[in-house]
Amino acid sequence: MIEFKGVQKTYPDGTVAIKNFNLEIKEGELLTLIGPSGCGKTTTMKMINRLVEPTAGDIYINGKQLKEYNIHELRWNIGYVLQQIALFPHMTVEENIAVVPEMKKWKKKEIHDRAKELMQMVGMEPSIYMKKKPSELSGGQQQRVGVIRALAADPQILLMDEPFSALDPISREGLQKDIRKLQKQIKKTIVFVTHDIDEATALGDRICLMNAGEIIQVDTPQKLILEPRDSFVRNFIGDKKSPWQTAVDIVASQTVSRILTQTAYEEGNFDSEQAYILSSDDGQVLCAVEHGKQQNVMEIPNDMNVLEAVSVFENTGTSILPVTKNNELIGTLTQQELLTYLASKTEVKNGVVTQ
Ligand SMILES: Nc1ncnc2c1ncn2[C@@H]1O[C@H](COP(=O)(O)OP(=O)(O)OP(=O)(O)O)[C@@H](O)[C@H]1O
Ligand SMILES: [Mg+2]
Whose CA is nearest to atom 26 of ligand 1? Predict the structure, then answer.
């Protein structure tokens, strides 16, 4: 849908903003662009609607080079939302929304219906807000109007440059939900710039992480978190790994207290209320002992993750598993330890589990 091929941008003063940019953004995709300040995010966006011209390489929309489009048609077909929404202060909300549809010569009734429909979509009651001026709206409401103004003439592409960064966390979350909902309903291709990795992962089908004019990694949020390409990516995204992805040796007790040697077992030298892993005197795993009875177990390697360990527990039916490293018994993992660990890593905000 939008394709960058070998794109470079050097500003007239010699600043190299984009070095070598190759990227394909798919139709209906929400791609978040993220990276440190000055890495070239805004420049990338502005090249899509030709507010900035590349110094080398080409950009295509639907297979056609940008240069081949009539510039006005191109811009009408691309909604653009900026960090500081610049609504026209002397116009009402409805008039602001109507700007591009009017240029496109839509009929009055059509424009009015469209404005009403979009306002309802973002939860602003048209009968209350349609005739208000921007100064009579809250920051979050102005931002919403900015978003729907960009959508009014039904553009195929929506560019959003840090549209929510001036907002408080609650309005921000609300608007993120709106964008997700809008994208599902109207299937726009959206390029969304943000500084905030949580926003990037919450919104993006894919995340494009940039640094110093280059793409470092483009992947789904999950892949970026689980398989960061290098230490830059790892540092940028921080510790976003889900507790389910933690290796079991972090959770397991690596003390020998739950390992029962054969000799101790035969001598009855253990607490029959507890679960143990029975090992031969030379450290080989034999079985589990629960309520004094022997049961088969499966060994789990130390790098297995918590999610996989849960399914091993389901399959074996024991409440304790032996953890091995290079086939050597290094500790034990109990169901209780897993539960305690997961509970400690789970955040509950307003009754909603967030991790
Ligand atoms: N008109 C310009 N003339 C010269 N240099 C510019 C111009 N616009 C941007 N730059 C430079 O190009 C580089 C990339 O800027 P850009 O605005 O694309 O970064 P950004 O990733 O959007 O940063 P931020 O997160 O701070 O918004 C920066 O070094 C910036 O100083
Ligand atoms: Mg910017």
Answer: 37
pLDDT attached to residue 328:
86
Measured from the Cα of 43, ligand 1's closest atom is 18
Q: Which ligand is nearest to the CA of 12?
A: 1
Strand order in the sheet with 214-219: 78-81, 157-161, 189-194, 30-34, 206-211, 214-219
The residues with which 177 forms a beta bridge, in sequence order, are none
Instruction: Give percent of the chain above pLDDT 90.
Output: 50
The residue whose CA has the least distance to atom 2 of ligand 1 is 11
pLDDT band at 311 (very low <50, low <70, confident <90, very high): very high
User: Distance between CA 130 and CA 91 in Å, rounded?
Assistant: 11
Q: Would you identify the CATH topology of the domain 248-343?
A: CBS-domain (3.10.580)
Q: Which of 56-60, 69-73, 314-318, 340-344 has the highest mean pLDDT?
A: 56-60
Which atom of ligand 1 lies closest to the CA of 9? Answer: 12
- For atom 18 of ligand 1, the residue with the nearest CA is 40
Which tens digit of pLDDT belongs to each residue from 122-181?
888 999 999 999 999 988 888 889 988 988 888 889 999 988 776 777 777 877 887 887
- Which one of 21, 42, 165, 192 would you pick to mutate in the ligand 1 pocket, going by the greatest count of ligand atoms within 8 A of its CB? 42
Q: Are 2-241 and 248-343 equal in CATH topology?
A: no
**Domain regions of the chain by residue span:** 2-241, 248-343
Contacts of 240 (CB under 8 A, 6+ apart): 197, 201, 225
Structure token pair of residue 331: 């500790």
Burial 218-255 (b: 16+ CB within 10 A, else e): bbebeebbeebeeeebeebbeebeebeebbbbebbeee
Q: CB-based burial of residue 179 (10 Å sphere; 0-12 exposed, 13-18 middle, 19+ buried)?
A: buried
**247 three-class SS:** strand
- CATH 3.40.50.80 for domain 2-241, yes or no, is no
Strands 30-34 and 189-194: parallel
